[in-house]
Every structure is written in C-alpha cells, then in structure tokens.
Amino acid sequence: MTAFFPPFFVAASLVAALVLQDFLPPVALLEGARTQLVPIVFCYGALAFPFAGMLGLAVAAGFLSDLSMLHLVDGRVEIPLGWSILFYVLSGAVLQGFQPLFLRGRWEIHSFGSGICTVLLLLSQYVMISFRRESLHLDAAVGWHILGPGMLAVLFAPFFYLFMRLVTPPRPVPRPRRFTP
Amino acid sequence: MSKLNMILLGVAVLIGLVLVSLPVETVRSWQTDFLNIFSPVVETTSTVGRQITAVNQGLKTLDELERENRELSSQNKQLRAINQTLRDLEAENNRLRAAVGYRERSVFDLVPARVLTRDASTWWHSVKINRGFEDGVDGDMPVLTDVGLVGKVTTAARSMSIVLLVTDETCRVAAKVEGSREQGIVSGQRVAANAPPELVLNFLSRNADLKPGTKVYTAGVSGAVFPAGIFIGTVKEFRVRDLDGQAVLQPAVDFSTLEDVFVVRGSR
Question: B4 Cβ partners below 8 Å, 6+ apart?
C-alpha cells in the first residue's frame, strides 16, 4: 500500500509543468490539440494528499495557471483570475472520494481523472469565452480541441505517476487496528 | 467531512471568489509580476531548447558552411545596396512631399525580439518574447517580421512581453485591399480546424469579388494600434454573405516557425 507522497515534489512538478507545457508543440494528429500538464500534476496531488493539502494545491495550481494564461485584451479579462481555483477545488473534492482506491495502487484512477479533469476544464473555459464573445461555435475542431488534450492527459499521466513513484518510493502503511468490543 | 475541512473548503472558495472579483488593473500588475519572476526560468528553458535543436540541425560540413557563408555575404552586399537606394528614394520622397505640403512619411523604430514560448492555452493564440519595458516595449505596440504582421503586445513585463497573434479571434485589425477601395476588419478564428491557421476579412462590400492572391494590408485608421501598410496576408477565397462580403486570408507570416520578430516602438 502507498500512502506517503512528499508535497515538495508535487509543488516542484507543478511549477515545472507550468513552464514546460508552453514548450510542447501542438499535436497535429489531434487537430492541433495542446498538452496540458498542470491538471495531471493537480490530479496526482488531489488523490495523494489529505483534504487540506488538496485545497492548498488547488489554490496554488489555479492561481498560477490562471496568471500564466491570462488573456487581457482591450482592458478586459476573458476568464477571470481565480476561476481555475474554483474548478480545481470542486474537482479535487470529487477526486478525494477515489483516494482509498488510488492509495491501494490503482494508478488508472489518476490517469482517467487527469483526462476528465482536463476535458472539463477546457469545456468550462470554452463555454465562458463563448458567453464573453456572445457567439457559440460548435464543430468537430472544437470537439478535438477539448477532447484531444484530455486524451493526451490520459496518455501522459501514467508517466508522471511512475516518476512520482521513483522519486518518492511508497512506504508501508500500518494496518488499522480491528475494533474489538 | 470534519468541521476543520469544511472551514478550509470555505476559505479556498472564498479566495477564488475574491480573485474573480479583482479589478483588471490589479490583475494586470500581478501578471506583470508573475512574468518578472518566471522570465529567467522561461528564458533559460528556451535557450536550452534552442541549443538542443541547433545541435540536431546544425551539424554541417565545412564545405556547406563555406558555401552558406559565401551566399550570405553576397546577399548582405545586395541588401545593403538596395537599402542605400531605398534611403535615397525615401529622402527624395520626403523632400517632394514637403514641397507639396504633405506630412513627412516616417520609418518604424523597431526593437528586435526572440520568441521564447508559445502559449499552451487551447483558446488563445499568443507568444512570449524576450523584450519588455526595459527595452521600451509597452502594451498595444504592433509586432511584425520582415514578411508581415504578427500581432500586438498585450502585457509587457521587465524583460518579457506577451504578444497576441493576429490569428486570435480577439485581435482585430483594420485592413485595406490592394488595388481597390475595399476596407474591412481582419481577425483570427476561435478554433482553427486546419494548420496553418487562416484569417477572415469581414465587412467588405458584397460585390467586392476579391480574387485569390490579392494582398491585404493594415489600413492604419486614426487612433488604431497598427500603422498603415503592413502586409497581413493574401486572399484565398471570397464569400458573399447576407449583409456583407467575407474573404478568407492566408497569413503572410508562418506562425508555426516564428522565431525572430520586431516590436514597432514608434516612428523615427
């Protein structure tokens, strides 16, 4: 069983993900979909940390990714700073429900969690900018730009899981004592 | 859920809501600070990436290097000669304009810059460049290459700036069509289905009937960000809509290989 994941590595990975994702080229096979690394790191922390740690990570991940992607044009912000914090807090709270399974070594929870989290984040962003720009376009390209990064997150997440297992080897968790009346 | 966790959840949501309601100016200054802090990391990563690419691509033989050097020297001499001729023509043009009472035509004051990264965001098209307010770069300054228009600066930090590309839907440019009186607004597309991205020129007259290959330039209307005469792209297709005509443009600049750009700081 795994239980101990030092927060330092997750925090460092969050900053590295924030910088590195800007250097990854769009994937032509997925209609130019971009790889989002921050949701992968966040989902790992949300599954591995206790509730308070997850909230701290949600605030940090949301704040930093909003600042790095802030779109300021003509004195207007399309997606306000802080929006991603609310999104990560909500999705982190849901992911916490799967923590017992994840701590038993079910790595696929992280993989699919990252994919779903990425898709929902992009979908919510698209709905918001459509409201701001007062027009909604829905076609195959929009679908690919939302689903593509989700698929990429599902593919990349196991590598991050493996990396975290290498840098923070699992420690045995003492078995809970049986209740004896 | 314990009482403590409920309180922490409330605090996290409150932080999010407070940030959402912050005024734009505060958000802008925070973004500038963020860029100031991260610029050394981004610049170093970009340099390492470039060096790795250069090692992969740059292993040439001495013969190849010598040939390339000869070609570049010859091209350099040719360009110097053309440049000198153009300077003479510019001076003559300005003398003639002054003689007939026209305002003197000025040339741009350009700041060379290097593209550090492309924004990982799915919905916005922007790049970060290695010049900031230290170099005289400021918000709303046009950015171009030797080929044509790239976009405009939206946020300038100390040594890094964010450039909104002309392929973004929110970057709107007043444009005029070569060889006609047609004018319109060029903008990018929200989601480009095909690469390279295309631009659209809206609000043309329905009978404009633009032919493929026609060139489109910035119109330089008064108070606009972009000066007149910068090449934006060429017409690929013309469509007649209910109320106006729309042209699809092939951008002049290849945004997938964009590396070196110039920020227009003003005119000399």
Answer: A52
pTM comes to 0.82
In this structure, what token pair is assigned to residue B140?
A: 């709303």
Token pair belonging to B111: 């700041």
Give yes or no for A151 touching B (CB within 8 A): no
**Chain A environment of B1 (Cβ under 8 Å):** 51
The reply to whether residue A69 touches residue B4, judged by beta carbons under 8 angstroms, is no
Angle at the Cα of B195 (from B189 to B201), degrees rounded to 5? Answer: 35
What confidence tens digit (pLDDT) does each residue in A17-69 have? Answer: 998 888 888 888 888 888 899 999 999 999 988 999 999 999 999 999 999 88
Would an 8 Å CB–CB cutoff place B28 in contact with chain A? yes
Q: Which residues 54-113 of chain B have a CB within 8 Å of chain A?
A: none
Find the closest chain A residue to B155 by CA distance.
Answer: A72
Q: Which position has the token pair 């964009």?
A: B258
Cβ A58 vs Cβ A85: under 8 Å? yes
CB pairs A-B closer than 8 Å: 142
Residue B97 sits at φ, ψ, to 5 deg, of -65, -40
